[in-house]
Amino acid sequence: LIIVSLIGVLLFTIISNVASSNDVVVSTICPKTSNPPFCSSVLKFAGTTDLKGLAVYTLNLAHTNARKSLTLAKSIATTTTNPQLKQRYSSCAESYDEAAGDIENAQKDLALGDFNAVNIVTSGAMTEIDDCQDKFAQPPKDTSLLKNGKTLNDICSIILVISNLL
């Protein structure tokens, strides 16, 4: 009975420490991002509180998001009948392709321990995303990619904060 009680106390202590260290990480990183509530929801599923592990997690998430956005932009560019929208989506496909490449470079830079380069190329990805978003500021408007761009920028904002802390 004493052993069972000790094991229970030990497990409770471990779980409490993991939860509190996750809270510390979130409270350190998320207020500095462009969208703190989004940051909190993303980081709670990271499965780690290690900064480098969080960088790997968010870069993987950003890369997946950029690739999905690229696929969507290409698909809409192919199927839309509006020539102006076709041009915008084709241009956005190029932007998302560049953003995905920037994120791949950030992943390589992270593996090499070049955290400043992670920051620089992630900023480059954000510029590419903004270039696409800006194309839809004027009519005809189509919001199919706008939500994707906002999400990707929010993920990149988390990466910037983490890379500055590394």
UniProtKB/TrEMBL annotation:
A Pfam family matched in the record: PMEI
Protein's name according to its UniProt entry: Pectinesterase inhibitor domain-containing protein
Pectinesterase inhibitor domain residues: 21-162
Keywords: Disulfide bond, Signal
Family to which the UniProt record says this protein belongs: Belongs to the PMEI family.
Claim: NADP is one of the keywords in the record: no
Signal peptide range: 1-21
Listed Gene3D superfamilies: Invertase/pectin methylesterase inhibitor family protein
Lineage: Eukaryota, Viridiplantae, Streptophyta, Embryophyta, Tracheophyta
InterPro entries: Invertase/methylesterase_inhib (IPR035513), PCW_Enzyme_Inhibitor (IPR052421), Pectinesterase_inhib_dom (IPR006501), PMEI_plant (IPR034086)
Gene Ontology MF, one: pectinesterase inhibitor activity
